[in-house]
Specification:
single chain, mainly alpha, 3 helices, 70% helix
Length: 73
Amino acid sequence: MGFKQPNLAQARLEIDKCLSEIHSPYNDGRTQMSCKHELYMLKYWLEVEYKKLPTFAGEETWEQNKIIEILKQ
């Protein structure tokens, strides 16, 4: 069988839907706050799980590239 790379495109689509609901002027604050809270909890979970992952050679460049992008903005 072998390894098959997970497709995170579906996850990104779902997150984009949540962001759209937050930015929609047709939603009330309760709906927007609920969606934002879901994103916050997802972010927290991802940060916790990410810290548990092994470190690989070359990862330093990811952070450097991120900093460069931030500085460009």
